Automatic annotation (TrEMBL):
This is Thiamine-phosphate synthase. The keyword Transferase applies. Residues 171-346 form the Thiamine phosphate synthase/TenI domain. GO terms for biological process: thiamine biosynthetic process; thiamine diphosphate biosynthetic process. It is an enzyme of class 2 (transferase). CDD domains: TMP_TenI. GO terms for cellular component: cytoplasm. It comes from Nostoc commune NIES-4072.
Length: 371
Protein backbone atom coordinates (compact mmCIF):
# COMPACT_ATOMS: atom_id res chain seq x y z
CA UNK A 1 0.00 0.00 0.00
CA UNK A 2 1.12 3.57 -0.62
CA UNK A 3 0.95 6.91 1.22
CA UNK A 4 -2.49 7.54 -0.23
CA UNK A 5 -3.82 5.41 2.67
CA UNK A 6 -2.67 7.98 5.19
CA UNK A 7 -4.13 10.86 3.24
CA UNK A 8 -7.44 9.15 3.80
CA UNK A 9 -7.15 9.55 7.59
CA UNK A 10 -10.02 11.47 9.15
CA UNK A 11 -10.38 13.56 12.31
CA UNK A 12 -13.26 12.05 14.32
CA UNK A 13 -14.91 14.33 16.90
CA UNK A 14 -16.72 11.40 18.56
CA UNK A 15 -13.37 9.86 19.56
CA UNK A 16 -12.08 13.15 20.97
CA UNK A 17 -9.59 13.79 18.29
CA UNK A 18 -8.26 10.29 17.95
CA UNK A 19 -7.34 9.82 14.35
CA UNK A 20 -9.32 7.06 12.73
CA UNK A 21 -7.96 5.29 9.70
CA UNK A 22 -10.51 4.71 6.98
CA UNK A 23 -10.26 1.80 4.63
CA UNK A 24 -7.29 2.33 2.30
CA UNK A 25 -7.93 2.56 -1.39
CA UNK A 26 -7.24 -0.63 -3.27
CA UNK A 27 -4.87 -0.33 -6.20
CA UNK A 28 -7.84 -0.51 -8.54
CA UNK A 29 -9.57 2.33 -6.72
CA UNK A 30 -6.42 4.41 -6.77
CA UNK A 31 -6.20 4.06 -10.53
CA UNK A 32 -9.87 4.91 -10.81
CA UNK A 33 -9.26 8.11 -8.82
CA UNK A 34 -6.43 9.05 -11.14
CA UNK A 35 -8.64 8.47 -14.17
CA UNK A 36 -11.40 10.58 -12.61
CA UNK A 37 -8.94 13.39 -11.92
CA UNK A 38 -7.72 13.30 -15.52
CA UNK A 39 -11.28 13.37 -16.82
CA UNK A 40 -12.25 16.17 -14.44
CA UNK A 41 -9.25 18.32 -15.40
CA UNK A 42 -9.71 17.80 -19.14
CA UNK A 43 -13.45 18.44 -19.07
CA UNK A 44 -12.63 21.79 -17.47
CA UNK A 45 -9.87 22.46 -19.98
CA UNK A 46 -12.10 21.75 -22.97
CA UNK A 47 -14.89 23.97 -21.63
CA UNK A 48 -12.57 26.84 -20.77
CA UNK A 49 -11.02 26.72 -24.23
CA UNK A 50 -14.45 26.71 -25.86
CA UNK A 51 -15.49 29.69 -23.76
CA UNK A 52 -12.45 31.66 -24.94
CA UNK A 53 -13.30 30.93 -28.58
CA UNK A 54 -16.97 31.71 -27.95
CA UNK A 55 -16.18 35.15 -26.54
CA UNK A 56 -14.30 36.08 -29.72
CA UNK A 57 -17.10 34.80 -31.96
CA UNK A 58 -19.63 36.76 -29.93
CA UNK A 59 -17.87 40.04 -29.13
CA UNK A 60 -15.09 40.12 -31.73
CA UNK A 61 -16.97 38.85 -34.78
CA UNK A 62 -20.57 39.45 -33.73
CA UNK A 63 -21.21 36.06 -35.25
CA UNK A 64 -24.18 34.48 -33.51
CA UNK A 65 -23.95 31.23 -35.47
CA UNK A 66 -20.34 30.50 -34.49
CA UNK A 67 -20.96 31.64 -30.89
CA UNK A 68 -23.95 29.31 -30.69
CA UNK A 69 -21.92 26.38 -31.96
CA UNK A 70 -19.31 27.03 -29.23
CA UNK A 71 -22.04 27.19 -26.63
CA UNK A 72 -23.59 23.94 -27.85
CA UNK A 73 -20.21 22.19 -27.65
CA UNK A 74 -19.60 23.63 -24.18
CA UNK A 75 -22.91 22.25 -23.00
CA UNK A 76 -22.18 18.90 -24.60
CA UNK A 77 -18.86 18.73 -22.71
CA UNK A 78 -20.58 19.80 -19.48
CA UNK A 79 -23.04 16.91 -19.72
CA UNK A 80 -20.20 14.48 -19.00
CA UNK A 81 -18.91 16.41 -15.99
CA UNK A 82 -20.68 14.41 -13.30
CA UNK A 83 -20.44 15.02 -9.52
CA UNK A 84 -18.49 11.75 -9.30
CA UNK A 85 -15.73 13.19 -11.51
CA UNK A 86 -15.77 16.60 -9.83
CA UNK A 87 -15.38 14.90 -6.43
CA UNK A 88 -12.04 13.47 -7.54
CA UNK A 89 -10.53 16.97 -7.90
CA UNK A 90 -7.43 17.62 -5.82
CA UNK A 91 -6.11 21.00 -6.94
CA UNK A 92 -3.61 21.50 -4.07
CA UNK A 93 -2.14 18.07 -4.83
CA UNK A 94 -1.85 18.77 -8.58
CA UNK A 95 1.80 19.47 -9.55
CA UNK A 96 0.59 20.67 -12.99
CA UNK A 97 -0.94 23.91 -11.70
CA UNK A 98 2.57 25.40 -11.36
CA UNK A 99 3.69 24.43 -14.85
CA UNK A 100 3.52 27.13 -17.51
CA UNK A 101 5.39 27.69 -20.74
CA UNK A 102 6.71 31.15 -21.70
CA UNK A 103 4.59 30.93 -24.88
CA UNK A 104 1.47 30.80 -22.72
CA UNK A 105 2.31 34.07 -21.02
CA UNK A 106 2.18 36.18 -24.14
CA UNK A 107 0.25 35.97 -27.40
CA UNK A 108 1.14 37.86 -30.56
CA UNK A 109 -2.37 38.26 -31.95
CA UNK A 110 -6.00 37.19 -31.73
CA UNK A 111 -5.13 34.50 -34.25
CA UNK A 112 -2.55 33.07 -31.81
CA UNK A 113 -5.06 33.16 -28.96
CA UNK A 114 -7.58 31.29 -31.09
CA UNK A 115 -5.06 28.76 -32.39
CA UNK A 116 -3.63 28.08 -28.93
CA UNK A 117 -7.10 27.51 -27.54
CA UNK A 118 -8.22 25.27 -30.38
CA UNK A 119 -5.11 23.17 -29.68
CA UNK A 120 -6.00 23.09 -26.02
CA UNK A 121 -9.58 21.95 -26.68
CA UNK A 122 -8.54 19.32 -29.22
CA UNK A 123 -5.85 17.94 -26.91
CA UNK A 124 -8.26 17.85 -23.98
CA UNK A 125 -10.86 16.01 -26.05
CA UNK A 126 -8.26 13.50 -27.20
CA UNK A 127 -7.23 12.87 -23.59
CA UNK A 128 -10.88 12.52 -22.62
CA UNK A 129 -11.47 10.09 -25.44
CA UNK A 130 -8.60 7.82 -24.38
CA UNK A 131 -9.16 7.85 -20.60
CA UNK A 132 -12.92 7.60 -20.74
CA UNK A 133 -12.46 4.24 -22.45
CA UNK A 134 -11.55 3.11 -18.90
CA UNK A 135 -14.64 4.80 -17.52
CA UNK A 136 -17.56 4.91 -19.95
CA UNK A 137 -17.02 3.85 -23.56
CA UNK A 138 -20.03 6.01 -24.54
CA UNK A 139 -18.19 9.05 -23.28
CA UNK A 140 -15.16 8.09 -25.38
CA UNK A 141 -17.33 7.96 -28.48
CA UNK A 142 -18.95 11.30 -27.66
CA UNK A 143 -15.53 12.93 -27.14
CA UNK A 144 -14.28 11.64 -30.46
CA UNK A 145 -17.37 13.07 -32.16
CA UNK A 146 -16.88 16.41 -30.36
CA UNK A 147 -13.24 16.53 -31.43
CA UNK A 148 -14.29 16.30 -35.07
CA UNK A 149 -16.90 18.98 -34.49
CA UNK A 150 -14.22 21.23 -33.00
CA UNK A 151 -12.02 20.67 -36.08
CA UNK A 152 -14.94 21.82 -38.23
CA UNK A 153 -15.53 24.83 -35.99
CA UNK A 154 -11.83 25.70 -36.17
CA UNK A 155 -11.79 25.58 -39.92
CA UNK A 156 -14.98 27.69 -40.22
CA UNK A 157 -13.72 30.26 -37.75
CA UNK A 158 -10.23 30.50 -39.23
CA UNK A 159 -11.77 30.73 -42.72
CA UNK A 160 -14.08 33.47 -41.51
CA UNK A 161 -11.15 35.36 -39.96
CA UNK A 162 -9.21 35.07 -43.21
CA UNK A 163 -12.07 36.40 -45.30
CA UNK A 164 -12.66 39.29 -42.92
CA UNK A 165 -9.02 40.29 -43.03
CA UNK A 166 -8.93 39.95 -46.81
CA UNK A 167 -11.90 42.30 -47.17
CA UNK A 168 -10.25 44.79 -44.82
CA UNK A 169 -6.86 44.67 -46.60
CA UNK A 170 -6.21 47.54 -48.97
CA UNK A 171 -2.54 47.12 -49.66
CA UNK A 172 -1.01 43.87 -50.88
CA UNK A 173 2.74 43.39 -50.97
CA UNK A 174 3.97 40.85 -53.52
CA UNK A 175 7.61 40.06 -52.78
CA UNK A 176 10.54 39.84 -55.16
CA UNK A 177 13.89 38.20 -54.31
CA UNK A 178 15.77 40.48 -51.94
CA UNK A 179 18.88 40.06 -49.78
CA UNK A 180 16.99 41.43 -46.77
CA UNK A 181 13.66 39.85 -47.63
CA UNK A 182 12.53 39.33 -44.05
CA UNK A 183 13.63 42.76 -42.81
CA UNK A 184 11.96 44.42 -45.73
CA UNK A 185 8.71 42.59 -45.22
CA UNK A 186 8.79 43.20 -41.49
CA UNK A 187 9.25 46.91 -42.10
CA UNK A 188 6.11 46.91 -44.28
CA UNK A 189 4.20 44.94 -41.64
CA UNK A 190 5.22 47.56 -39.11
CA UNK A 191 3.70 50.17 -41.40
CA UNK A 192 0.32 48.39 -41.25
CA UNK A 193 0.51 45.87 -44.11
CA UNK A 194 -2.04 43.05 -43.63
CA UNK A 195 -1.60 41.02 -46.82
CA UNK A 196 1.60 39.50 -48.18
CA UNK A 197 2.34 37.27 -51.15
CA UNK A 198 5.57 35.33 -51.38
CA UNK A 199 6.63 35.38 -55.05
CA UNK A 200 9.93 34.02 -56.24
CA UNK A 201 9.98 32.59 -59.74
CA UNK A 202 13.54 31.24 -59.61
CA UNK A 203 14.40 29.94 -56.13
CA UNK A 204 14.89 26.22 -55.70
CA UNK A 205 12.33 24.43 -53.59
CA UNK A 206 14.37 24.12 -50.41
CA UNK A 207 14.99 27.87 -50.29
CA UNK A 208 11.39 28.53 -51.29
CA UNK A 209 10.12 26.40 -48.43
CA UNK A 210 12.51 27.96 -45.93
CA UNK A 211 11.59 31.51 -46.93
CA UNK A 212 7.89 30.75 -47.07
CA UNK A 213 8.02 29.26 -43.59
CA UNK A 214 9.82 32.32 -42.18
CA UNK A 215 7.48 34.76 -43.90
CA UNK A 216 4.43 32.91 -42.70
CA UNK A 217 5.77 33.06 -39.17
CA UNK A 218 6.37 36.78 -39.50
CA UNK A 219 2.87 37.37 -40.85
CA UNK A 220 1.49 35.29 -38.03
CA UNK A 221 3.22 37.52 -35.49
CA UNK A 222 1.81 40.67 -37.10
CA UNK A 223 -1.64 39.18 -37.68
CA UNK A 224 -1.31 39.48 -41.49
CA UNK A 225 -2.46 37.08 -44.19
CA UNK A 226 0.18 35.07 -45.99
CA UNK A 227 -0.33 33.92 -49.59
CA UNK A 228 2.04 31.86 -51.75
CA UNK A 229 2.34 32.61 -55.46
CA UNK A 230 1.82 29.76 -57.95
CA UNK A 231 2.51 26.81 -55.64
CA UNK A 232 -0.36 25.07 -53.90
CA UNK A 233 2.02 22.44 -52.49
CA UNK A 234 4.21 25.08 -50.84
CA UNK A 235 1.14 26.89 -49.51
CA UNK A 236 -0.05 23.67 -47.87
CA UNK A 237 3.40 22.72 -46.61
CA UNK A 238 3.79 25.99 -44.69
CA UNK A 239 0.12 26.28 -43.72
CA UNK A 240 -0.30 29.52 -45.66
CA UNK A 241 -3.61 31.37 -45.77
CA UNK A 242 -3.90 30.78 -49.47
CA UNK A 243 -2.43 30.82 -52.93
CA UNK A 244 -2.31 33.22 -55.86
CA UNK A 245 -2.71 31.70 -59.32
CA UNK A 246 -2.43 33.06 -62.83
CA UNK A 247 -4.42 32.15 -65.94
CA UNK A 248 -1.68 29.66 -66.90
CA UNK A 249 -1.38 28.10 -63.45
CA UNK A 250 -3.27 25.19 -61.88
CA UNK A 251 -7.04 25.27 -62.57
CA UNK A 252 -9.03 26.89 -59.76
CA UNK A 253 -11.24 23.82 -59.23
CA UNK A 254 -8.18 21.62 -58.64
CA UNK A 255 -6.59 24.17 -56.31
CA UNK A 256 -9.86 24.47 -54.38
CA UNK A 257 -10.01 20.72 -53.97
CA UNK A 258 -6.48 20.66 -52.60
CA UNK A 259 -6.81 23.75 -50.37
CA UNK A 260 -10.36 23.26 -49.09
CA UNK A 261 -12.99 25.91 -48.71
CA UNK A 262 -11.37 27.90 -45.91
CA UNK A 263 -8.12 28.97 -47.56
CA UNK A 264 -7.98 31.88 -49.96
CA UNK A 265 -7.47 31.62 -53.70
CA UNK A 266 -6.59 34.66 -55.77
CA UNK A 267 -6.49 34.81 -59.57
CA UNK A 268 -4.88 37.30 -61.97
CA UNK A 269 -7.21 38.79 -64.55
CA UNK A 270 -6.60 41.18 -67.43
CA UNK A 271 -10.10 41.64 -68.87
CA UNK A 272 -13.78 41.43 -68.07
CA UNK A 273 -14.20 37.87 -69.38
CA UNK A 274 -11.45 36.62 -67.06
CA UNK A 275 -12.99 38.59 -64.21
CA UNK A 276 -16.46 37.07 -64.70
CA UNK A 277 -15.00 33.57 -65.07
CA UNK A 278 -12.94 34.03 -61.89
CA UNK A 279 -16.01 35.06 -59.90
CA UNK A 280 -18.01 32.15 -61.30
CA UNK A 281 -15.22 29.74 -60.33
CA UNK A 282 -15.40 30.91 -56.72
CA UNK A 283 -12.05 32.62 -56.23
CA UNK A 284 -11.77 34.83 -53.16
CA UNK A 285 -10.13 37.82 -54.82
CA UNK A 286 -8.64 38.85 -58.15
CA UNK A 287 -5.68 40.83 -59.40
CA UNK A 288 -6.63 43.51 -61.95
CA UNK A 289 -3.81 44.48 -64.23
CA UNK A 290 -1.20 45.24 -65.23
CA UNK A 291 -2.52 48.76 -64.89
CA UNK A 292 0.81 50.11 -66.18
CA UNK A 293 3.60 48.34 -67.99
CA UNK A 294 6.11 47.05 -65.50
CA UNK A 295 9.60 45.53 -65.58
CA UNK A 296 8.44 43.13 -62.85
CA UNK A 297 6.19 41.43 -65.39
CA UNK A 298 8.00 42.11 -68.63
CA UNK A 299 6.04 41.66 -71.83
CA UNK A 300 2.58 41.76 -70.30
CA UNK A 301 0.54 44.43 -72.06
CA UNK A 302 -0.90 47.12 -69.79
CA UNK A 303 -4.67 47.16 -69.39
CA UNK A 304 -4.70 50.82 -68.39
CA UNK A 305 -7.12 52.51 -66.04
CA UNK A 306 -10.13 51.45 -68.12
CA UNK A 307 -10.10 47.95 -66.72
CA UNK A 308 -9.73 49.41 -63.21
CA UNK A 309 -12.90 51.46 -63.77
CA UNK A 310 -14.68 48.39 -65.12
CA UNK A 311 -13.67 46.41 -62.01
CA UNK A 312 -14.85 49.23 -59.74
CA UNK A 313 -18.31 49.00 -61.27
CA UNK A 314 -18.63 45.27 -61.81
CA UNK A 315 -16.50 43.24 -59.43
CA UNK A 316 -18.37 41.73 -56.49
CA UNK A 317 -15.32 40.26 -54.73
CA UNK A 318 -12.18 42.01 -53.41
CA UNK A 319 -9.88 43.05 -56.26
CA UNK A 320 -6.40 44.52 -56.27
CA UNK A 321 -5.14 46.82 -59.00
CA UNK A 322 -1.58 45.74 -59.82
CA UNK A 323 1.24 46.67 -62.15
CA UNK A 324 3.47 49.72 -62.02
CA UNK A 325 1.66 51.32 -59.10
CA UNK A 326 3.71 53.60 -56.85
CA UNK A 327 3.42 56.62 -54.57
CA UNK A 328 3.32 58.98 -57.60
CA UNK A 329 0.45 57.38 -59.48
CA UNK A 330 -1.60 55.68 -56.76
CA UNK A 331 -4.07 58.55 -56.69
CA UNK A 332 -4.80 58.13 -60.41
CA UNK A 333 -5.57 54.47 -59.75
CA UNK A 334 -7.74 55.39 -56.77
CA UNK A 335 -9.53 58.03 -58.86
CA UNK A 336 -10.27 55.33 -61.44
CA UNK A 337 -12.10 53.42 -58.69
CA UNK A 338 -9.50 51.21 -56.98
CA UNK A 339 -9.88 50.65 -53.24
CA UNK A 340 -7.11 48.06 -53.06
CA UNK A 341 -3.73 47.86 -54.74
CA UNK A 342 -0.90 45.34 -54.96
CA UNK A 343 2.70 46.38 -55.40
CA UNK A 344 6.13 44.78 -55.82
CA UNK A 345 8.83 47.40 -56.47
CA UNK A 346 7.24 50.24 -54.55
CA UNK A 347 7.87 48.38 -51.32
CA UNK A 348 10.59 45.88 -52.19
CA UNK A 349 12.84 48.64 -53.49
CA UNK A 350 11.85 51.28 -50.97
CA UNK A 351 14.52 52.68 -48.71
CA UNK A 352 11.96 53.05 -45.95
CA UNK A 353 9.27 50.42 -46.50
CA UNK A 354 7.46 51.34 -43.27
CA UNK A 355 6.97 54.93 -44.40
CA UNK A 356 5.98 53.99 -47.93
CA UNK A 357 3.46 51.45 -46.58
CA UNK A 358 1.99 54.10 -44.32
CA UNK A 359 1.78 56.57 -47.19
CA UNK A 360 0.13 54.12 -49.61
CA UNK A 361 -2.34 53.07 -46.92
CA UNK A 362 -3.12 56.66 -46.04
CA UNK A 363 -4.03 57.34 -49.68
CA UNK A 364 -6.15 54.19 -49.92
CA UNK A 365 -7.93 54.95 -46.66
CA UNK A 366 -8.66 58.48 -47.78
CA UNK A 367 -11.66 57.47 -49.87
CA UNK A 368 -13.62 55.04 -47.69
CA UNK A 369 -12.01 54.78 -44.27
CA UNK A 370 -14.69 52.35 -43.07
CA UNK A 371 -13.63 49.26 -45.13
C1 LIG B 1 -2.09 40.12 -56.63
C2 LIG B 1 -1.47 39.49 -57.83
N1 LIG B 1 -1.99 39.74 -59.02
C3 LIG B 1 -1.42 39.21 -60.11
C4 LIG B 1 -0.33 38.37 -60.01
C5 LIG B 1 0.28 37.71 -61.21
O1 LIG B 1 0.08 36.31 -61.23
P1 LIG B 1 0.48 35.45 -62.53
O2 LIG B 1 -0.27 35.99 -63.67
O3 LIG B 1 0.32 34.04 -62.22
O4 LIG B 1 2.00 35.77 -62.71
P2 LIG B 1 3.20 35.45 -61.73
O5 LIG B 1 3.09 36.34 -60.56
O6 LIG B 1 3.09 34.04 -61.33
O7 LIG B 1 4.42 35.74 -62.53
C6 LIG B 1 0.18 38.13 -58.76
N2 LIG B 1 1.23 37.33 -58.57
N3 LIG B 1 -0.40 38.69 -57.68
C1 LIG C 1 3.36 40.08 -60.48
C2 LIG C 1 2.54 40.95 -61.32
N1 LIG C 1 1.36 40.54 -61.88
C3 LIG C 1 0.81 41.48 -62.63
C4 LIG C 1 -0.44 41.28 -63.38
O1 LIG C 1 -0.94 42.25 -63.96
O2 LIG C 1 -0.94 40.19 -63.38
S1 LIG C 1 1.67 42.89 -62.65
C5 LIG C 1 2.84 42.24 -61.64
C6 LIG C 1 4.06 42.95 -61.18
C7 LIG C 1 3.78 44.19 -60.39
O3 LIG C 1 4.98 44.65 -60.00
P1 LIG C 1 5.31 46.18 -59.77
O4 LIG C 1 4.47 46.62 -58.63
O5 LIG C 1 6.77 46.16 -59.42
O6 LIG C 1 5.03 46.89 -61.03
MG1 LIG D 1 1.51 32.61 -61.47
Amino acid sequence: MVTRIYENSQFDESTNGVVVMVEPYSQKEQIQQVVYRILDANLDRAREGLRIIEEWCRFGLNNAQLALECKRLRQEVAKWHTPELRAARDTPGDPGTELTHPQEEQRASIKSVLQANFCRIEEALRVLEEYSKLYQPNMAKACKQMRYEVYTLESSLMGHQRHQLLWRSRLYLVTSPHESLLNNVEAALKGGLTLLQYRDKTADDSLRLEQARKLRQLCHIYGALFIVNDRVDVALAVDADGVHLGQQDMPIAVARQLLGSQRLIGLSTTNKEEMQAAIAEGVDYIGVGPVYETPTKLGKVATGLEYVSYAAKNCSIPWFAIGGIDANNINDVIDAGAERVAVVRSLMQAEQPTLVTQYLLSQLNRIKPEL
